[in-house]
Design a protein that fits this description.
It is a single chain. The radius of gyration is 20 Å and the shape is globular. The protein is of the alpha/beta class. The strands form 2 sheets. An 8-stranded parallel sheet has the order 2-1-3-8-7-4-5-6. Helix 1 packs across helix 8 (241-259) and helix 7 packs parallel to helix 8 (241-259). It is 29% helix and 19% strand. The protein starts with 34 loop residues before the first strand and ends with a helix.
Amino acid sequence: MLDIWFEEKIDAQNSNNDNHESFRLHLKRSESEDGILIFSDLSSDKALLNGLKGLKSHFHSNCQYRGMLRSSSDKFLDQMCYEFINQDAYLPLMVSNNSIYKHLKASQTEDQTTKNVFIDNRINLLDSDNDISLTGFLAVQKHFSEEQQWNICEEQSYNFLRLGKLKNQLDVAESIIRDAEYIEFNINSIKHSDLTDNVNAPVTGLTIEEACQLMKYSGTANKLKFLNITGYDASLDENGKIGECIAMLLWYFIDGKESSTEYFNGLNKTDFQEYLVQPSHLPIALKFFKHNITGQWWVKLPEELNENEIVIACSKRDYYQACNDEVSDRLMQALSVI
């Protein structure tokens, strides 16, 4: 059934003697319709494919490069998003020039919501019209964003992390990414000095190392249903270095995926250590939970503040701040908007 979405089959080239170490084997088309699917809607995917083939594999999962989509029409993309988001067999990783979020929204019913994370240097609320409290904005820069949209996100989203804070708080970025169902990473959030071939890259932005770390965090997001790496104009990639960079981001995503486990099935006493913290300026204590295997943290917001049980992924930093009688800005924001 997957073949209806893609242009043509990709045949693996197995002439290399060290294929057992090469990522090429993981680009081989498989009849199995599960695992990780990498595909694009680009004008040319040569640089991306060459970048993927140049990497070494440390992976055991079924990872395929399925090529380019047959069409880029709105109707086709709406239907593709609907099928990909409403199945559990495979995880789609799409490389594109433009965001496909509007097509994802068009494929959903009115009562469907997804937890989204946008890694970009600017805010575009037109592309994120879900409940702002369910949406993460990472690496955004104020001088690229409209004032009104910036203020809305600061006031209504507890998953809002500007570039300066993100560089010093990658652990907080991990907790925001952890619960995401849709992640969109714009390569124009990587600064020009780290990706000089990208003429659209800004002077200030993420380093390549930070981008790879965020992609590895994205791979550990067990609820993730769709990853879109956007902002790639293949016609401008004369040397193939942007495609090579995107291939590396995908590699680190898969590395994170392989290292993750399905571990979060509720805050049960067997898998978690529970810590009760009573900040002096809050009337209600906060319950923090640390997973015994991963060391990851969650916080349960008091039922007295909300009729529903609200559990938020957080960081060790959040816990230690609360122990020092200082609730982090992110948790205070969550308490005020939920």
